[in-house]
Amino acid sequence: MSRTVTVKPFDYVIFGATGDLTMRKLLPGFYYRMLAGQVPEEARIIGTARSPLTRDAYQGRALEALKKFIKKEDFDDAKIQRFLKLVHYVSLDGSKPESDWNSLRALIPQDKADRVRVFYFATAPNLYGAIAKNLHDKKLAVGDARVVLEKPIGIDLASANDINDSVGQYFKEENIFRIDHYLGKETVQGVIALRFSNPMFEAVWSSDYIESVQITAAETVGVEGRAAYYDESGALRDMIQNHLLQVLALIGMEKPASMAADDVRDAKVAVLQGLKPFDSRTVASHAVRGQYVAGKMGSENVPGYLEELGKESQTETYVALCAEIDSPRWKNVPFFIRTAKRLEQKVSEVVITFKPTESRLFPTEAKRNVLAIRVQPDEGISWTFNAKNPVHNDFSLGQATMRVDFAQTFQTRYPDAYERLMLDAVRGDPILFIRRDEVEAAWTWLAPLMKAWADKATPMAHYKAGSWGPDEARDMLKRHHAQWHEDMSL
Ligand code: BG6
């Protein structure tokens, strides 16, 4: 179990408390934090949603969620009962001033300055402004009350600015916690440690030695029960704008001046702002969008995206991009980014391929060194390098791979990304949250691509469910003399 930093008693109000995210991630996350001793007994988790439920009925739903989403071995009746005592419910439409705000106010002690107040917005993002205004007008957003904004922050730069402006009227930037759960993943944070605590990596982290970087977030699931959201969003907005660009920023950033939140965020935003803009040529040559068609996941036949959706759609379920950071460190180094639903395997990883050595000393050619950072599952790293192959009597080389499994090395369980982030908001620690300028830089970079795709300026590629994606994405890498990493045994 990970070490915990105790937090002050808190009132954590969740808007959208009957939704999938609350049930799947937030409530189980709080339960695990309670098991870890981080949630004080006086804490209160207050669900709000429009459904007219009693507290008992909501606790019943919470119990069902815990049964479903926490591991059997962690389910303990007495602890579950202790947890449910923390859970309250108010039937409330957060976007409506005439809703039952009095009941919510009655649940939150008004005079206890030492309690932390957090409002978590897990609703549709277009409601964030109205909820923030109501919290202000109803005098609930007092003191240093914090607000956690779930992604996506908008669907483009203009809508993101609207959301940020309207929430920003009532909450100071330092109290706005924009969540990107990839930053809650230990292995994503681990990139900073790996890069800046090991001379062996720090010294070679540039175009002098690195040939290319690949960032992958592959999923086996389809759109699950979220077709309405997903079809509006697509893979570019759902995964690239936030999660994958955050990983890219951590791989690409300069050394931050310190580990203070703003120093790290300054370093990240410089990368995002330094991404080379797409132009009419590169939207075609440096980007591939695709949709899955019927195929096989293991032995199961699965329908294509359009069949699942039951209508025509131009929404992409696959994206592969070739990005470039315009900085001396990364001159001419392609960053290949891809994400998709219904690929062969669920895996998130970063693969760094190093330039080959120029020396021709040996009878066989030295292969490229490869560093793979496995974000999930099987969190760890692998390092593939050349070694003298002892089978031969000369200096012939062979490839050897060192693998490190972090869970085994550190004898710990990997918490779900949300656990840490939810409590970081209580602690008021913004390091793993997204600053407004990062959101803006990401949307700005994607704008020409979104426009080209909306104008159907580039074709939609297709790939079979259960495959590794469309040929067009393979061809894009071939043009860079590269290939996608598909041997996930590394
Ligand atoms: C979410 C996306 O942000 O991330 C989902 O909305 C996606 O579509 C999920 O499935 C992936 O997260 P993870 O942690 O499973 O890689």
Low-confidence stretches: none
Q: Provide a count of the helices.
A: 16
Order of the strands making up the biggest sheet: 16-15-14-13-7-12-11-8-17
Mean pLDDT: 95
Q: Structural class from helices and strands?
A: alpha/beta
Please state roughly what percent of the residues sit in beta strands, choosing from under 5%, 5-15%, 15-25%, 25-35%, 35-45% or over 45%. 15-25%
Find the CATH superfamily of the largest domain.
Dihydrodipicolinate Reductase, domain 2
Distance between the termini: 27 Å
CATH architecture of the largest domain: 2-Layer Sandwich
Name the shape in a single word.
globular
User: The CATH topology of the largest domain, please?
Assistant: Dihydrodipicolinate Reductase, domain 2
Q: How many strand segments?
A: 17
Domain Glucose-6-phosphate dehydrogenase NAD-binding: 13-189
Binding site for NADP(+): 50, 151
Enzyme class: oxidoreductase
InterPro entries: G6P_DH, G6P_DH_AS, G6P_DH_C, G6P_DH_NAD-bd, NAD(P)-bd_dom_sf
